[in-house]
Amino acid sequence: MAARGGVEGQRRGGGRPLPPSARGPPVHNKPGPRFEPVDREKTCPLLLRVFTKVGGHHTQADFAVRGKEPKDEVQIYTWMDATLRELTDLVKEVAPEARRRDALLSFAFVYPTKSGHFTVKEVGKTLSYPNARRPDDGSKALGTLSFEIGDYLDVAIL
């Protein structure tokens, strides 16, 4: 005889199991859309406008007026499969503060909302020098973080 109490153990008069309870949202175990790496020999790179700031991120107001973005800009040609680790190494080439052994880099996308105002959304953090004891988001690619061509990248050097 079947055990009582669990969903599997409960049966209707005809011997069929009861349907699962309708409590809470359904759980889907489908993975998200797969991000395919880019063939960098055949794919044209995109222009990524990177703004760096020591101590914290720029504010939304810093990007409010088109053409009057912050002055500390670096323009990088890259691809959608570029990782935060690759971008960290590029930032370290132009920002001496990012080369500190204990430096933490916080990455944020800056993009316009439907109302036309810019928003700053943090997407990951990396250590200036990777450390197995302190894992970071260095392996995340732009394409997996919902980056869209035309977005800016704001990097806070902490």
Descriptive labels:
158 residues; 5 strands; five-stranded mixed beta sheet; mainly beta
Fold and architecture overview:
The chain has 158 residues and is mainly β. Helices cover 7% and strands 25% of the residues. It has one helix spanning 84-94; strands spanning 46-54, 73-78, 104-112, 118-127, 152-157. A five-stranded mixed sheet has the order 2-1-5-3-4, covered by helices on one side. Strand 3 (104-112) and strand 4 (118-127) form a beta hairpin. The chain starts with 45 loop residues before the first strand and ends with a strand.
What is the fold's blueprint, element by element?
Layout: E1 46-54, E2 73-78, H1 84-94, E3 104-112, E4 118-127, E5 152-157
Parallel strand pairs: 1-5
Antiparallel strand pairs: 1-2, 3-4, 3-5
Bin the strand percentage.
25-35%
Structural class by helix and strand composition: mainly beta
**What's the assembly state of these chains?**
single chain
Would you count the extended β strands for me? 5
Low-confidence parts: 21-30
The profile of the biggest β sheet is: 5 strands, mixed
Our Rg estimate from Cα atoms comes to: 23 Å
TL;DR?
Helix content is 7%, strand content 25%. It is mainly beta.
